[in-house]
């Protein structure tokens, strides 16, 4: 009987993990394709990528605001951390991070606008490399040789991917540069997030609320400066229900990706999340080549495999190093507990 209960429990856990990972894949891949449809001029005929990014931030901020209000009305049903959006202390601490957040999502969308979905992963594959570089330059933390070798593999795969993509009609240097800038912005955002989280009581959702709200305010002058205002005003489908429906759906996808990412990490582990993200990128590339009827060379596919392999190896090496550091930190405490009291006093 107990064995049957254990088997059922194990089955339920496995099913839950499968459903959460599947949800992450579906939401993440759908988000990329929806954004590509919105950002590509031939699809939407609207030349306003910053405006599209602004609206997605506004949708995410509105959802967070609604959840915040509902948590006060229905505290037993809806849970959302207490927020103080326009507190001077919060504003000054979070605003610099919001600029990085804004740069990250704008650069990612601009990259997706100018490159194909199939090439999008390789175009943004240098995040890990920039993470290692900025960790050393800003935090003075050295990285192991094994991690550096993994980064070298990623850089080689990126170089090969750019070389092979440049032979196709869909290649764009502008999109590739935006991808590099997006990778650098994401790496900086990840590093500074760790510094800002203590100021919001380690609440990821609260930080997401602040970032989306502040970014939606920051992006308004950027839209004007980028010359998008008259493009929006003169857009023929600006009053179309269908246009705003897909815009809102894109914003909902942008919000959902943050939710399912946090859920996947919670149900599995950071390492499993990285592996899942790597596998998802592989599936996304294959789906994109089939959806857009793209034919790629052997070396192009090899570049994707090299980047995926290097990223997966880096994630695994970092996980092993973190486990070893955690065990090493626990050894002195364990030894001290085993020593007699008089020996502890001498120590």
Protein described:
81% of the residues lie in helices and 0% in strands. It has 347 residues and is mainly α. It has one domain. Helix 1 packs antiparallel against helix 11 and helix 7 runs antiparallel to helix 13 (298-338). It is globular. 34% of the residues are buried. The model is unreliable at 343-347 (pLDDT under 50). This is Putative gdp-fucose transporter. It is found in: Membrane. It comes from Tabanus bromius (Band-eyed brown horse fly).
The portion of residues forming beta strands comes to under 5%
Radius of gyration: 23 Å
**What kind of sheet is the major sheet?**
none
What letter string, H or E per element, gives the SSE order? HHHHHHHHHHHHHH
Q: Using the alpha-carbon principal axes, give the shape.
A: globular
User: What is the rounded distance between the termini?
Assistant: 52 Å
* Alpha plus pi helix count: 14
Share of helical residues:
over 70%
Structural class: mainly alpha
How many structural domains? 1
How would you state the average pLDDT, rounded? 85
**Using DSSP, what is the number of strands?**
0
Low-confidence stretches: 343-347
């Amino acid at each position: 009987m107990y064995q049957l209960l254990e088997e059922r429990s194990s089955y339920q856990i496995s099913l839950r993990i499968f459903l959460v990972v599947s949800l992450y894949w579906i939401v993440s891949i759908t988000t990329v394709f929806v954004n590509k449809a919105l950002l590509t001029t031939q699809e939407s005929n609207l030349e306003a990528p910053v405006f599209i990014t602004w609206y997605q931030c506004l949708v995410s901020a509105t959802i967070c605001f609604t959840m915040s209000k509902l948590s006060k009305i229905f505290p037993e049903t809806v849970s959302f951390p207490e927020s103080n959006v326009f507190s001077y202390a919060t504003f000054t601490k979070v605003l610099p991070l919001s600029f990085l957040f804004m740069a990250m999502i704008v650069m990612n969308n601009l990259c997706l606008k100018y490159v194909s979905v199939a090439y999008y992963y390789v175009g943004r594959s240098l995040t890990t490399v920039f993470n290692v570089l900025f960790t050393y330059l800003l935090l003075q933390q050295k990285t192991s040789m094994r991690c550096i070798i993994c980064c070298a593999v990623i850089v080689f795969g990126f170089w090969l991917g750019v070389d092979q993509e440049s032979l196709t009609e869909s290649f764009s240097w502008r999109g590739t540069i935006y991808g590099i800038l997006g990778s650098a912005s994401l790496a900086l955002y990840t590093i500074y997030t760790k510094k800002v989280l203590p100021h919001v009581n380690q609440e990821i959702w609260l930080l997401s609320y602040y970032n989306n709200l502040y970014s939606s305010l920051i992006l308004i002058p950027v839209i004007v400066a980028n010359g998008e205002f008259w493009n929006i005003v003169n857009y023929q489908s600006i009053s179309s229900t269908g246009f705003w429906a897909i815009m809102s759906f894109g914003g909902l996808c942008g919000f959902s990706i943050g939710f399912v990412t946090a859920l996947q990490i919670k149900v599995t582990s950071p390492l499993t999340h990285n592996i899942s993200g790597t596998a998802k990128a592989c599936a996304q590339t294959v789906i994109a080549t089939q959806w857009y009827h793209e034919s790629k060379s052997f070396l192009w596919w090899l570049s994707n495999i090299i980047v995926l392999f290097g990223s997966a190896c880096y994630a695994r090496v970092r996980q092993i190093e973190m486990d070893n550091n955690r065990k090493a930190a626990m050894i002195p405490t364990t030894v001290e507990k085993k020593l007699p009291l008089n020996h502890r006093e001498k120590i």
